[in-house]
Amino acid sequence: MGTKITICRSTRRNLRYILLWPRDSEELTPSSAVNIRIVGYVLITIPPCLAVLMHLIFTTTKHIDVSVVDDFSVLTSLIGVYYVAFTFTKNQPKVAKLLLEMSNFEKFGKPPNFDQEDKNLNFFSTSFFVYLCYSVLVYDIIKFRRKEECEDKNRNEGLNENCGFIAPMWTPFSTKNDVVYYLYHAYVIFCVQLLMKPSALVSYTEFEITTHLILRIKQLNQMIRQIFVNTNYVIARRRLNNCIVYHGDIIRMAKAINDCFSSSMFMHTFITAIICACIEKQFIEGDHFCAVVHFCGWATVLVLACWSGQILIDASETIPVSIWFSKWYEADVRLQKDILMMLKRSQELFTLTAGPFSSLSFSLLVSATKMSYSLLCLLNY
C-alpha cells in the first residue's frame, strides 16, 4: 500500500473547509484536534439552530398566526446534518484508509481512463461545492428582498418577527439596529454555509469513491475476457489467479464503502423525505420560488446518493456476464472448475445500504418520493 492519498483531492479539500476532514498529515491517524474541530463546529453553528427552535416554541405556545413549516423543515435538516457530520467524522479514518488503498495501483496497474475520470470527478466536486455555496446565497437573497414585506406584516398584524433572515428565528436581542442586523445576518449566513454542506458533500464523497471502484470493476472485466485468449495453461492460470485476487479486493472495497457510509445515508435519505414534504407544503402555501430553490438542492443530493448505489449494482452485474462470455469453453478442465467458482461468487451483487432497512438504488428514490407525498398529505390534513 502507498503512503499518500492521490484520489478525491477536491472533495477532501471541500470537506476540510467545513471542518469534517483533517489536514493531509492527519488523514490516516487523526489527532485530538479532530474532536476539538467537531466541538468547534457545533459551538459555532448551534446558536442559529437554537434561535429557530425558540421561534417554533414561541409561535406554537403563544398561538401566533405564523406558518411553522419553515421551522420544521429547518430543524429536521439540522438534526440530519449533525448526525451525518458526527457519523462521518467517526468513520473518517476508515474512509482515509480506503482512499489510500484505492490510490495504489502496484498490484494490477491503473484502470483504463483513470486519469481522465479522476480529473472529471475533481472538476465536478469543485463545481458541486460552488453550486452549494451559491444556492445558499440565492436563497438568502430571496428572503432578504422580502424584508420590507415582512416588516409591513409585522406592523399591520402586531407581530414581532425577525425579517430578512434565511430561516425564521427568535433572538434574545433586537435586530432593528442596522449594525446589529447586518452583523448577525452575516453570522447566520456563515453558519448556514457550514450546516448545509455536510449531507451533500458526504453523498458526493460516496458517489466519487463508488465511481473509482467501478473503474476497477471495468478493469477486472477486461482482465477476465483476456484469461483464455490464445495462451497456454500456465499463462491462463496466472491470469485467472490475478482475476480471482482482484475480484476479492473489489468485494472487500465494496463492503468497506458500505461500512463507511451506511449509517450516514440512512439518516440522510430519511430526513430528505421529511424535508421535501415540508418544502412541498411551503410551495402550496404560496412561497413558490424559495420552495423550488430549496427543493432542488435536497432532491439533487438524494438522487446523487441513490444513483451511487444503483450504478454499483449495475456494475457488479457485469462481472458474471464477462465471465460467461470469456472463452472458458476452450480452457483446461481444471481452469473451468476454478472459473465456475468465481462465477458463483460473482452472483452476489455489490450494494450500498441506507441503514439496515434498504439499499441505495432508484427503488429507494421512488420509496422516498412516496413517503414525501404521504407526509405532505398528512400536513395538509
Automatic annotation (TrEMBL):
<keyword id="KW-1003">Cell membrane</keyword>
<dbReference type="GO" id="GO:0005886">
    <property type="term" value="C:plasma membrane"/>
</dbReference>
<keyword id="KW-0472">Membrane</keyword>
<dbReference type="Pfam" id="PF02949">
    <property type="entry name" value="7tm_6"/>
</dbReference>
<dbReference type="InterPro" id="IPR004117">
    <property type="entry name" value="7tm6_olfct_rcpt"/>
</dbReference>
<protein>
    <recommendedName>
        <fullName>Odorant receptor</fullName>
    </recommendedName>
</protein>
<dbReference type="GO" id="GO:0007165">
    <property type="term" value="P:signal transduction"/>
</dbReference>
<feature type="transmembrane region" description="Helical">
    <location>
        <begin position="72"/>
        <end position="89"/>
    </location>
</feature>
<keyword id="KW-0675">Receptor</keyword>
<keyword id="KW-0807">Transducer</keyword>
<keyword id="KW-1133">Transmembrane helix</keyword>
<dbReference type="GO" id="GO:0005549">
    <property type="term" value="F:odorant binding"/>
</dbReference>
<feature type="transmembrane region" description="Helical">
    <location>
        <begin position="38"/>
        <end position="60"/>
    </location>
</feature>
<keyword id="KW-0552">Olfaction</keyword>
<keyword id="KW-0716">Sensory transduction</keyword>
<feature type="transmembrane region" description="Helical">
    <location>
        <begin position="121"/>
        <end position="139"/>
    </location>
</feature>
<keyword id="KW-0812">Transmembrane</keyword>
<dbReference type="GO" id="GO:0004984">
    <property type="term" value="F:olfactory receptor activity"/>
</dbReference>
<comment type="similarity">
    <text>Belongs to the insect chemoreceptor superfamily. Heteromeric odorant receptor channel (TC 1.A.69) family.</text>
</comment>
